[in-house]
Amino acid sequence: MDLAVACGRPLLLRQPLKADAFQQVVLGCVNPIAEEVNPARIAQLRLGLDEATPAYTVQRNCGSGMQAIDEGRRLIQAGDADLVLAGGTEALSHTPLLWPRTAVDWFARLNGARTPGQKLLALLGLRLSFFKPVIGLEKGLTDIVSDLNMGQTAELVAYLFDISRADADAYAMQSHHRLAAAQTEGRLGEIEPMFAANGTAYDRDDGVRPDSTLESLGKLKPVFEKPYGKVTAGNSSQITDGACWTVLASEAAVKQHGLQPLARILDCTWAGLDPRIMGLGPAISSANLMKRQNLTLDDIALWELNEAFAAQVLGCVKALADAKFCKDVLGWDEPVGAIDPAKLNLDGGAISLGHPVGASGARIVLHAAHALKQRGGKLAMASQCIGGGQGGSMLLEAV
Protein backbone atom coordinates (compact mmCIF):
# COMPACT_ATOMS: atom_id res chain seq x y z
CA MET A 1 0.00 0.00 0.00
CA ASP A 2 2.99 2.27 0.53
CA LEU A 3 3.52 2.20 -3.25
CA ALA A 4 0.01 3.45 -3.96
CA VAL A 5 0.37 6.24 -1.42
CA ALA A 6 3.83 7.28 -2.64
CA CYS A 7 2.50 7.31 -6.21
CA GLY A 8 -0.68 9.21 -5.39
CA ARG A 9 0.77 12.04 -3.30
CA PRO A 10 2.70 13.87 -6.05
CA LEU A 11 -0.22 13.45 -8.46
CA LEU A 12 -2.72 14.97 -6.04
CA LEU A 13 -0.35 17.74 -4.96
CA ARG A 14 -0.22 18.92 -8.57
CA GLN A 15 -4.00 19.18 -8.85
CA PRO A 16 -6.13 22.20 -7.86
CA LEU A 17 -8.49 19.87 -6.01
CA LYS A 18 -9.78 19.72 -2.45
CA ALA A 19 -9.86 16.55 -0.38
CA ASP A 20 -13.58 16.08 -1.00
CA ALA A 21 -13.47 16.70 -4.78
CA PHE A 22 -13.68 13.03 -5.83
CA GLN A 23 -16.93 11.09 -5.89
CA GLN A 24 -15.26 7.66 -6.09
CA VAL A 25 -11.87 5.96 -5.75
CA VAL A 26 -11.24 2.72 -7.67
CA LEU A 27 -8.04 0.69 -7.45
CA GLY A 28 -6.95 -2.52 -9.17
CA CYS A 29 -5.05 -5.07 -7.11
CA VAL A 30 -4.63 -8.81 -7.62
CA ASN A 31 -2.82 -9.94 -4.46
CA PRO A 32 -3.80 -7.73 -1.51
CA ILE A 33 -2.21 -8.80 1.75
CA ALA A 34 -4.41 -10.03 4.56
CA GLU A 35 -4.16 -6.75 6.48
CA GLU A 36 -5.28 -4.69 3.48
CA VAL A 37 -8.31 -6.45 2.02
CA ASN A 38 -9.67 -3.29 0.36
CA PRO A 39 -6.51 -1.45 -0.75
CA ALA A 40 -8.49 1.29 -2.47
CA ARG A 41 -10.04 2.47 0.79
CA ILE A 42 -6.78 2.28 2.72
CA ALA A 43 -4.88 4.21 0.07
CA GLN A 44 -7.63 6.81 -0.16
CA LEU A 45 -7.56 7.50 3.57
CA ARG A 46 -3.77 7.54 3.76
CA LEU A 47 -3.71 10.02 0.89
CA GLY A 48 -5.84 12.37 2.98
CA LEU A 49 -8.94 12.27 0.81
CA ASP A 50 -12.34 12.86 2.39
CA GLU A 51 -13.45 9.85 4.43
CA ALA A 52 -16.99 10.37 3.11
CA THR A 53 -15.78 9.42 -0.39
CA PRO A 54 -16.40 5.72 -1.13
CA ALA A 55 -13.64 3.49 -2.50
CA TYR A 56 -13.48 -0.04 -3.83
CA THR A 57 -10.94 -2.48 -5.24
CA VAL A 58 -11.33 -4.42 -8.50
CA GLN A 59 -9.64 -7.63 -9.63
CA ARG A 60 -9.46 -8.84 -13.23
CA ASN A 61 -6.01 -10.41 -13.02
CA CYS A 62 -3.58 -8.52 -15.29
CA GLY A 63 -6.42 -6.25 -16.42
CA SER A 64 -7.20 -4.91 -12.93
CA GLY A 65 -5.63 -1.46 -13.40
CA MET A 66 -7.36 -0.95 -16.74
CA GLN A 67 -10.59 -2.24 -15.20
CA ALA A 68 -10.33 0.43 -12.51
CA ILE A 69 -10.04 3.15 -15.17
CA ASP A 70 -12.92 1.64 -17.12
CA GLU A 71 -15.03 1.62 -13.94
CA GLY A 72 -14.31 5.31 -13.44
CA ARG A 73 -15.11 6.08 -17.06
CA ARG A 74 -18.46 4.33 -16.78
CA LEU A 75 -19.32 6.15 -13.54
CA ILE A 76 -18.69 9.49 -15.24
CA GLN A 77 -20.58 8.51 -18.40
CA ALA A 78 -23.57 7.44 -16.31
CA GLY A 79 -23.60 10.79 -14.54
CA ASP A 80 -22.79 9.21 -11.16
CA ALA A 81 -19.47 11.06 -10.81
CA ASP A 82 -17.53 13.99 -12.21
CA LEU A 83 -14.15 13.14 -10.69
CA VAL A 84 -12.76 9.66 -10.06
CA LEU A 85 -9.32 8.65 -8.81
CA ALA A 86 -8.52 5.34 -10.51
CA GLY A 87 -5.43 3.17 -10.84
CA GLY A 88 -3.71 0.00 -9.71
CA THR A 89 -1.11 -1.26 -7.28
CA GLU A 90 0.81 -4.48 -6.70
CA ALA A 91 3.66 -5.63 -4.47
CA LEU A 92 4.58 -9.03 -5.87
CA SER A 93 7.62 -9.09 -3.59
CA HIS A 94 5.14 -9.44 -0.71
CA THR A 95 3.39 -12.47 -2.17
CA PRO A 96 2.85 -14.82 0.79
CA LEU A 97 4.14 -18.33 1.29
CA LEU A 98 1.27 -20.82 1.55
CA TRP A 99 1.14 -23.91 3.71
CA PRO A 100 0.33 -27.16 1.87
CA ARG A 101 -3.28 -28.29 2.29
CA THR A 102 -2.08 -31.33 4.27
CA ALA A 103 -0.32 -29.03 6.74
CA VAL A 104 -3.41 -26.84 7.14
CA ASP A 105 -5.49 -29.93 7.88
CA TRP A 106 -2.91 -31.06 10.45
CA PHE A 107 -2.94 -27.68 12.23
CA ALA A 108 -6.75 -27.88 12.31
CA ARG A 109 -6.64 -31.35 13.89
CA LEU A 110 -4.09 -30.19 16.46
CA ASN A 111 -6.12 -27.10 17.29
CA GLY A 112 -9.26 -29.19 17.65
CA ALA A 113 -7.66 -31.71 19.97
CA ARG A 114 -9.02 -31.44 23.52
CA THR A 115 -7.62 -34.30 25.60
CA PRO A 116 -3.90 -35.14 26.04
CA GLY A 117 -4.45 -38.34 24.07
CA GLN A 118 -6.03 -36.49 21.15
CA LYS A 119 -3.18 -33.97 21.14
CA LEU A 120 -0.56 -36.73 21.16
CA LEU A 121 -2.31 -38.51 18.31
CA ALA A 122 -2.39 -35.27 16.29
CA LEU A 123 1.30 -34.59 16.99
CA LEU A 124 2.19 -38.06 15.71
CA GLY A 125 0.74 -37.02 12.36
CA LEU A 126 3.38 -34.31 11.87
CA ARG A 127 5.38 -34.71 8.64
CA LEU A 128 8.44 -32.86 7.37
CA SER A 129 6.64 -32.33 4.07
CA PHE A 130 4.29 -29.95 5.89
CA PHE A 131 7.14 -27.44 6.11
CA LYS A 132 7.55 -27.00 2.39
CA PRO A 133 5.44 -23.89 1.61
CA VAL A 134 4.40 -22.88 -1.89
CA ILE A 135 4.93 -19.33 -3.17
CA GLY A 136 1.48 -17.82 -3.61
CA LEU A 137 2.53 -16.21 -6.90
CA GLU A 138 3.19 -19.66 -8.37
CA LYS A 139 -0.43 -20.61 -7.78
CA GLY A 140 -1.70 -17.24 -8.92
CA LEU A 141 0.10 -17.54 -12.25
CA THR A 142 -1.39 -20.96 -12.97
CA ASP A 143 -4.80 -21.17 -14.62
CA ILE A 144 -6.87 -23.62 -12.61
CA VAL A 145 -9.15 -24.50 -15.56
CA SER A 146 -6.52 -25.35 -18.18
CA ASP A 147 -3.90 -26.35 -15.58
CA LEU A 148 -1.29 -24.33 -17.49
CA ASN A 149 0.86 -21.61 -16.05
CA MET A 150 1.13 -18.34 -17.95
CA GLY A 151 4.50 -19.25 -19.45
CA GLN A 152 3.07 -22.45 -20.89
CA THR A 153 0.25 -20.49 -22.53
CA ALA A 154 2.90 -18.30 -24.18
CA GLU A 155 4.65 -21.45 -25.41
CA LEU A 156 1.38 -22.56 -27.01
CA VAL A 157 0.95 -19.19 -28.75
CA ALA A 158 4.54 -19.44 -30.01
CA TYR A 159 3.80 -22.89 -31.43
CA LEU A 160 0.53 -21.87 -33.09
CA PHE A 161 2.07 -18.87 -34.85
CA ASP A 162 5.53 -20.30 -35.53
CA ILE A 163 7.38 -17.79 -33.38
CA SER A 164 11.01 -18.81 -32.99
CA ARG A 165 13.27 -18.43 -29.99
CA ALA A 166 15.32 -15.94 -32.01
CA ASP A 167 12.17 -13.89 -32.75
CA ALA A 168 11.28 -13.76 -29.05
CA ASP A 169 14.81 -12.84 -27.97
CA ALA A 170 15.07 -10.14 -30.63
CA TYR A 171 11.83 -8.59 -29.39
CA ALA A 172 13.03 -8.73 -25.77
CA MET A 173 16.32 -7.05 -26.72
CA GLN A 174 14.37 -4.31 -28.48
CA SER A 175 12.24 -3.75 -25.37
CA HIS A 176 15.33 -3.17 -23.22
CA HIS A 177 16.96 -0.89 -25.79
CA ARG A 178 13.79 1.17 -26.21
CA LEU A 179 13.26 1.57 -22.46
CA ALA A 180 16.90 2.57 -21.95
CA ALA A 181 16.53 5.22 -24.68
CA ALA A 182 13.27 6.48 -23.15
CA GLN A 183 14.92 6.82 -19.73
CA THR A 184 17.98 8.58 -21.16
CA GLU A 185 15.91 10.95 -23.29
CA GLY A 186 13.44 11.77 -20.50
CA ARG A 187 10.30 10.36 -22.14
CA LEU A 188 8.99 8.74 -18.93
CA GLY A 189 7.99 11.86 -17.06
CA GLU A 190 4.97 10.12 -15.56
CA ILE A 191 7.22 7.93 -13.40
CA GLU A 192 7.67 9.38 -9.91
CA PRO A 193 10.86 8.90 -7.86
CA MET A 194 10.77 6.75 -4.73
CA PHE A 195 12.71 7.49 -1.56
CA ALA A 196 14.21 4.95 0.82
CA ALA A 197 14.17 5.40 4.58
CA ASN A 198 17.76 6.70 4.46
CA GLY A 199 16.82 9.35 1.88
CA THR A 200 18.22 7.58 -1.18
CA ALA A 201 16.23 8.53 -4.27
CA TYR A 202 15.32 5.99 -6.94
CA ASP A 203 14.20 7.86 -10.01
CA ARG A 204 13.84 4.96 -12.44
CA ASP A 205 13.12 1.25 -12.58
CA ASP A 206 16.30 -0.81 -12.51
CA GLY A 207 15.18 -3.89 -14.42
CA VAL A 208 16.31 -2.50 -17.76
CA ARG A 209 19.36 -4.15 -19.33
CA PRO A 210 20.58 -1.82 -22.09
CA ASP A 211 23.50 -4.16 -22.81
CA SER A 212 21.13 -6.99 -23.83
CA THR A 213 22.22 -8.78 -26.99
CA LEU A 214 20.91 -11.74 -28.93
CA GLU A 215 23.96 -13.66 -27.74
CA SER A 216 23.37 -12.95 -24.05
CA LEU A 217 19.64 -13.69 -24.28
CA GLY A 218 20.33 -16.82 -26.30
CA LYS A 219 22.32 -18.32 -23.43
CA LEU A 220 19.28 -18.47 -21.15
CA LYS A 221 17.49 -21.80 -20.84
CA PRO A 222 13.74 -22.29 -21.38
CA VAL A 223 11.81 -22.07 -18.12
CA PHE A 224 8.44 -23.64 -18.80
CA GLU A 225 8.98 -26.27 -21.51
CA LYS A 226 12.45 -27.74 -21.13
CA PRO A 227 14.62 -28.21 -23.10
CA TYR A 228 13.13 -26.96 -26.38
CA GLY A 229 10.76 -24.18 -25.30
CA LYS A 230 10.90 -20.60 -26.56
CA VAL A 231 10.02 -18.75 -23.34
CA THR A 232 12.88 -17.79 -21.02
CA ALA A 233 13.37 -15.40 -18.13
CA GLY A 234 14.95 -13.01 -20.63
CA ASN A 235 11.97 -12.77 -23.00
CA SER A 236 9.29 -12.73 -20.29
CA SER A 237 7.96 -9.86 -18.20
CA GLN A 238 9.73 -9.13 -14.95
CA ILE A 239 8.01 -9.84 -11.65
CA THR A 240 8.07 -6.52 -9.85
CA ASP A 241 6.25 -3.99 -7.68
CA GLY A 242 4.52 -0.81 -8.80
CA ALA A 243 1.56 1.53 -8.59
CA CYS A 244 -0.24 3.94 -10.89
CA TRP A 245 -3.00 6.52 -10.42
CA THR A 246 -4.98 8.58 -12.91
CA VAL A 247 -7.47 11.39 -12.42
CA LEU A 248 -10.60 10.88 -14.52
CA ALA A 249 -12.79 13.90 -15.08
CA SER A 250 -15.97 14.81 -16.91
CA GLU A 251 -15.89 17.77 -19.30
CA ALA A 252 -17.73 19.81 -16.69
CA ALA A 253 -15.14 18.96 -14.02
CA VAL A 254 -12.29 19.87 -16.37
CA LYS A 255 -13.80 23.33 -16.83
CA GLN A 256 -14.80 23.78 -13.19
CA HIS A 257 -11.37 22.95 -11.76
CA GLY A 258 -9.20 24.24 -14.61
CA LEU A 259 -7.67 20.80 -15.27
CA GLN A 260 -5.30 20.08 -18.15
CA PRO A 261 -6.31 16.72 -19.67
CA LEU A 262 -3.73 14.41 -21.23
CA ALA A 263 -6.19 12.49 -23.41
CA ARG A 264 -9.84 11.52 -23.80
CA ILE A 265 -11.01 7.93 -23.28
CA LEU A 266 -13.11 7.06 -26.32
CA ASP A 267 -13.93 3.42 -25.68
CA CYS A 268 -12.96 0.23 -23.86
CA THR A 269 -13.72 -3.40 -24.66
CA TRP A 270 -13.16 -6.74 -22.94
CA ALA A 271 -12.99 -10.14 -24.62
CA GLY A 272 -12.84 -13.78 -23.60
CA LEU A 273 -11.07 -16.76 -25.18
CA ASP A 274 -9.65 -20.20 -24.41
CA PRO A 275 -7.46 -19.85 -21.28
CA ARG A 276 -4.80 -21.98 -22.97
CA ILE A 277 -4.11 -19.18 -25.44
CA MET A 278 -4.88 -16.26 -23.13
CA GLY A 279 -2.00 -14.27 -24.68
CA LEU A 280 -4.07 -13.63 -27.81
CA GLY A 281 -6.71 -11.75 -25.82
CA PRO A 282 -5.50 -8.27 -26.93
CA ALA A 283 -5.89 -9.24 -30.59
CA ILE A 284 -9.57 -10.04 -30.03
CA SER A 285 -10.44 -7.11 -27.77
CA SER A 286 -8.59 -4.62 -30.00
CA ALA A 287 -10.21 -5.92 -33.18
CA ASN A 288 -13.65 -5.76 -31.56
CA LEU A 289 -13.01 -2.20 -30.45
CA MET A 290 -11.77 -1.17 -33.90
CA LYS A 291 -14.85 -2.67 -35.52
CA ARG A 292 -17.16 -0.87 -33.09
CA GLN A 293 -15.40 2.44 -33.78
CA ASN A 294 -15.12 1.79 -37.55
CA LEU A 295 -11.32 2.08 -37.47
CA THR A 296 -8.42 0.54 -39.39
CA LEU A 297 -4.84 0.03 -38.27
CA ASP A 298 -3.85 3.18 -40.15
CA ASP A 299 -6.08 5.23 -37.84
CA ILE A 300 -4.12 4.27 -34.73
CA ALA A 301 -0.91 6.22 -34.19
CA LEU A 302 0.46 4.31 -31.19
CA TRP A 303 -0.01 0.91 -29.54
CA GLU A 304 0.75 -0.16 -25.99
CA LEU A 305 0.40 -3.94 -25.90
CA ASN A 306 1.47 -5.22 -22.50
CA GLU A 307 4.58 -7.36 -22.79
CA ALA A 308 3.64 -10.34 -20.66
CA PHE A 309 5.87 -12.44 -22.93
CA ALA A 310 7.66 -11.60 -26.16
CA ALA A 311 6.04 -14.63 -27.82
CA GLN A 312 2.61 -13.42 -26.74
CA VAL A 313 3.09 -9.91 -28.18
CA LEU A 314 4.41 -11.33 -31.44
CA GLY A 315 1.54 -13.82 -31.46
CA CYS A 316 -1.01 -10.98 -31.30
CA VAL A 317 0.73 -9.17 -34.14
CA LYS A 318 0.69 -12.31 -36.28
CA ALA A 319 -2.90 -13.17 -35.34
CA LEU A 320 -4.24 -9.81 -36.54
CA ALA A 321 -2.47 -10.34 -39.85
CA ASP A 322 -3.61 -13.95 -40.23
CA ALA A 323 -6.58 -14.47 -42.56
CA LYS A 324 -7.72 -17.72 -40.93
CA PHE A 325 -7.59 -16.33 -37.38
CA CYS A 326 -9.43 -13.19 -38.40
CA LYS A 327 -12.15 -15.15 -40.19
CA ASP A 328 -12.60 -18.02 -37.73
CA VAL A 329 -12.15 -16.11 -34.47
CA LEU A 330 -13.03 -12.50 -35.26
CA GLY A 331 -15.53 -13.05 -38.06
CA TRP A 332 -13.70 -10.61 -40.35
CA ASP A 333 -13.74 -11.26 -44.11
CA GLU A 334 -10.22 -9.84 -44.41
CA PRO A 335 -7.25 -9.77 -42.03
CA VAL A 336 -7.13 -6.80 -39.68
CA GLY A 337 -3.51 -6.30 -40.72
CA ALA A 338 -0.08 -6.24 -39.14
CA ILE A 339 0.67 -3.66 -36.45
CA ASP A 340 3.58 -1.49 -37.58
CA PRO A 341 6.59 -2.17 -35.26
CA ALA A 342 7.30 1.56 -35.44
CA LYS A 343 4.01 2.16 -33.58
CA LEU A 344 4.24 -0.64 -31.01
CA ASN A 345 5.63 -0.26 -27.47
CA LEU A 346 8.03 2.46 -28.55
CA ASP A 347 9.38 3.04 -25.04
CA GLY A 348 9.72 -0.62 -24.05
CA GLY A 349 7.30 -2.49 -21.84
CA ALA A 350 6.88 -5.12 -19.16
CA ILE A 351 9.83 -7.21 -20.39
CA SER A 352 12.19 -4.38 -19.50
CA LEU A 353 10.08 -2.31 -17.09
CA GLY A 354 8.26 -5.01 -15.13
CA HIS A 355 4.71 -6.27 -14.75
CA PRO A 356 3.14 -5.48 -11.36
CA VAL A 357 -0.08 -7.17 -12.41
CA GLY A 358 -2.63 -5.01 -10.60
CA ALA A 359 -0.98 -1.80 -11.81
CA SER A 360 0.09 -2.69 -15.36
CA GLY A 361 -3.24 -1.97 -17.04
CA ALA A 362 -3.35 1.54 -15.58
CA ARG A 363 0.32 2.11 -16.40
CA ILE A 364 0.00 1.31 -20.10
CA VAL A 365 -3.09 3.55 -20.39
CA LEU A 366 -1.26 6.42 -18.70
CA HIS A 367 1.85 5.92 -20.81
CA ALA A 368 -0.19 5.72 -23.99
CA ALA A 369 -1.65 9.13 -23.13
CA HIS A 370 1.81 10.61 -22.50
CA ALA A 371 3.29 9.02 -25.62
CA LEU A 372 0.42 10.33 -27.74
CA LYS A 373 1.08 13.83 -26.46
CA GLN A 374 4.85 13.58 -26.96
CA ARG A 375 4.88 11.97 -30.39
CA GLY A 376 1.73 13.40 -31.92
CA GLY A 377 -1.10 11.55 -33.62
CA LYS A 378 -4.78 11.31 -32.88
CA LEU A 379 -5.45 7.83 -31.46
CA ALA A 380 -3.63 5.37 -29.21
CA MET A 381 -4.60 1.82 -28.25
CA ALA A 382 -3.67 0.31 -24.88
CA SER A 383 -4.27 -3.43 -24.66
CA GLN A 384 -3.28 -6.44 -22.59
CA CYS A 385 -3.75 -10.16 -22.18
CA ILE A 386 -5.37 -11.39 -18.98
CA GLY A 387 -4.78 -14.66 -17.17
CA GLY A 388 -7.79 -16.96 -17.35
CA GLY A 389 -8.40 -16.21 -21.03
CA GLN A 390 -9.38 -12.57 -21.50
CA GLY A 391 -8.18 -9.43 -23.22
CA GLY A 392 -8.78 -5.74 -22.64
CA SER A 393 -8.32 -2.72 -24.91
CA MET A 394 -8.79 0.98 -24.29
CA LEU A 395 -8.83 3.64 -27.02
CA LEU A 396 -7.49 7.12 -26.27
CA GLU A 397 -7.82 10.31 -28.29
CA ALA A 398 -5.44 13.25 -28.18
CA VAL A 399 -6.88 16.50 -26.83
3D architecture notes:
The chain has 399 residues and is an alpha/beta fold. The chain has a domain at 148-190 and 262-398: Peroxisomal Thiolase, Chain A, domain 1. 39% of the residues lie in helices and 18% in strands. The protein is built from 15 helices and 14 strands. The protein has helices spanning 2-13, 39-46, 64-77, 101-112, 116-123, 136-140, 150-160, 165-184, 214-218, 251-257, 281-292, 310-321, 323-330, 350-353, 357-375; strands spanning 24-28, 55-58, 83-91, 97-98, 134-135, 142-143, 148-149, 194-195, 201-202, 241-249, 263-272, 302-305, 379-386, 390-398. The strands form five sheets. A four-stranded mixed sheet has the order 2-1-3-10, sandwiched between helices. Strands 11-14-13-12 form a four-stranded mixed sheet, sandwiched between helices. The protein is globular and about 75 Å long.
Map the helices and strands.
Elements lengths: L1 H12 L10 E5 L10 H8 L8 E4 L5 H14 L5 E9 L5 E2 L2 H12 L3 H8 L10 E2 H5 L1 E2 L4 E2 H11 L4 H20 L9 E2 L5 E2 L11 H5 L22 E9 L1 H7 L5 E10 L8 H12 L9 E4 L4 H12 L1 H8 L19 H4 L3 H19 L3 E8 L3 E9 L1
Parallel strand pairs: 1-2, 1-3, 12-13
Antiparallel strand pairs: 3-10, 4-5, 6-7, 8-9, 11-14, 13-14
Helix pairs in contact: 3-15, 4-5, 7-12, 11-12
